[in-house]
Design a protein that fits this description.
The protein has 14 helices and 26 strands. It is of the alpha/beta class. α8 packs parallel to α9, α8 runs parallel beside α12 and α10 packs parallel to α11.
């Protein structure tokens, strides 16, 4: 393969890559602001300039650079030698940083971007350390540019990433560059707010604190947040996300780069749709219909009673010859579906299995940049069906309508119902059918079914557990637990393990997602859980460059 040398280190590269791309892939830093892998190359920020020595086509000897070249725009060549640490390159880096900070307010202590700001980092690494600018700074206004985004114009460095995003990725073109020189600034076109379905991404790609998320503004310092790798648990997209949380509370959700799925973007629907996780009315303790609520207020005893009543309800119905029915929500993970179905089938091997209602809003929408927003608002309808069909061993797995029909027709004597939707999901037909039979409800939010259930067990949302989802394209992806379940709720997998153990008079094991997937992979039809499962990336150890001095 062709090779290039950057600051004395040789790297192999693929034809068509730029110098900056080669360096970043090799984790060799070259400072840059305006370049982004998902946007066009404009080479406007100029901090990535370097001395580039090219080999002569005839003799092969290196030709000294006559000027600095933008590494984001210069193609890599075999035998090329690049210096970003030469006196000329370093002088340029210091000059660019000095110019960028001339009108910057340097308000890092109150800026939401502090701790993850490239201007802050590069000022420390490549800046002069002091300002020579004595004149008054230009003061620019704060602007409300859309329902989710604020623009602090005086922090902007005019990298134009946001403008290119609205033109090239969303195709909506709300943002523009207004003015020239020292009064140049980003703005929206008159009468056109930044209000597209991907608008929050401009906050992610802004390298400084100019574009800020209203929802996260002044909520938390980023160095207190813990990042957990996850996937979209609200739609069928399977978008890779990072869940950022602290002290058991989620503060924001951001995209996690995956060029095979969502590239660098997520929808605002996914970015802000997790708020129900911390709703005050979440189901927190088991409830048994007819029992005094006060008697169920102590968590250990409530769970012991709730699990026992659930086993009595389902097991008693099976022993009495009644057909059991299990409705597994498409909001649940594959592991949830597997363990819940195992418990029900252990009571009644001929139990009716079904996938819960799959919400669909509108139609799929693909943006000019290639990103698709899916109309299906359930993350795992395909995964749940795949698991249930493997366990059904040739018997039909119903959809929600067929299950409702079976309930109404009396062929199901006792039901196990799971919800876990972000809002009330119960239709009038299902509610009417379930009002005639005893049923166990495992859910996260109160719905019209909650007062009808014989036993209610509080489940956990996807951010509170580990598992796997299969997206609209059939990609099977794992996700990790970000926060503990609210109050005394439990993940559906753990609930199923507790029910299985209680049925057999044994002590329940703690849920282990990897172990359950290994068991699933040994079942015909589920081999892909061993061969095609995409796990979350391992957490990299963070190394600080802070020098500690003993006092």
């Amino acid at each position: 393969m062709p090779q290039i040398t950057i600051n004395g280190v040789k790297h192999e590269f693929n034809k068509g890559e730029t110098i900056l791309q080669v360096a970043l892939r090799a984790e060799q830093e070259i400072p840059h602001y305006c370049w982004h892998p998902g946007l066009s190359v404009v080479a406007s920020c100029r901090i990535c300039l370097a001395e580039v020595w090219n080999p002569d086509a005839k003799t092969g000897k290196l030709i000294p650079a006559t000027k600095l070249s933008p590494t984001c725009q210069t193609p890599a060549m075999d035998g090329q030698v690049v210096y970003t640490d030469s006196p000329k390159s370093v002088a340029n880096q210091k000059a660019v940083m000095e110019f960028l900070l001339i009108n910057h307010p340097v308000d890092c202590p109150v800026c939401d971007q502090a701790g993850e700001c490239h201007l802050q980092d590069y000022s420390y690494q490549y800046g002069r350390g002091e300002s020579r600018f004595q004149e008054a700074k230009n003061k620019r206004p704060k602007k409300d540019v859309g329902p989710n985004v604020l623009l602090y114009s005086d922090r902007c460095i005019m990298c134009t990433r946001c403008v290119r995003f609205t033109r090239e990725v969303t195709g909506t073109g709300e943002l523009m560059v207004q003015g020239r020189g020292s009064v140049e600034e980003i703005d929206v076109f008159p009468g056109l707010a930044l209000d597209n379905e991907l608008s929050g991404n401009v906050v992610d790609i802004c390298p400084v604190g100019a574009l800020l998320d209203k929802d996260f503004l002044f909520q938390q310092r980023v160095w207190f947040l813990t990042k957990t790798a996850s996937v979209d648990g609200l739609t069928a997209s399977g978008d890779n996300i990072s869940v950022e949380h602290h002290d058991g509370r989620v503060y924001r959700v951001k995209p996690r780069e995956n060029t095979e799925v969502n590239k660098w973007w997520i929808t605002d629907e996914v970015r802000y749709g997790w708020k129900f996780v911390h709703r005050e009315d979440r189901l927190k303790l088991p409830a048994v219909r007819g029992m005094d609520a006060f008697a169920m207020e102590q968590a250990p005893e409530a769970w012991e009673t709730g699990l026992a009543k659930a086993n009595d309800l389902v097991g008693g119905a099976a022993r009495a010859g009644k057909r059991l029915g299990l409705l597994v929500s498409p909001m649940l993970s594959c592991e949830d579906a597997w363990l819940l179905a195992k418990w029900v089938l252990a009571q009644d091997p001929q139990a009716e299995l079904a996938v819960g209602p799959v919400p669909v809003h509108g139609a799929d929408k693909t943006f000019p940049g290639g990103f698709t927003m899916y109309a299906e608002k359930a993350p795992n309808a395909r995964g749940v069906r795949r698991v249930l069909e493997a366990l059904a061993k040739g018997r039909a797995v119903h959809d929600a309508a067929a299950f409702e029909k079976a309930l109404a027709g009396g062929s199901i004597g006792t039901a196990v119902i799971t919800g876990n939707y972000p809002s009330d999901w119960v239709g009038a037909g299902l509610r009417e059918a379930l009002s005639r039979v005893p049923f166990l409800l495992v859910d996260t939010l109160p719905t019209s079914l909650t007062p009808l259930a014989s036993v209610t067990l509080p489940g956990a949302v996807w951010l509170e557990k580990s598992g796997s989802f299969e997206n609209a394209k059939g990609r099977l992806q794992g996700f990790d637990r970000a926060v503990q379940p609210t109050d005394f709720a439990k993940g559906e997998c753990q609930i199923a393990l507790d029910l299985l153990a209680g049925r057999d008079g044994m002590r329940a094991a703690a849920f282990d997602a990897a172990a359950v997937r290994a068991e699933m992979a040994r079942t015909p039809g589920l081999e892909r859980f061993a061969t095609e499962h995409h796990a979350t990336p391992a957490k990299a150890a963070a190394e600080s460059d802070m020098v500690l001095v003993e006092l």
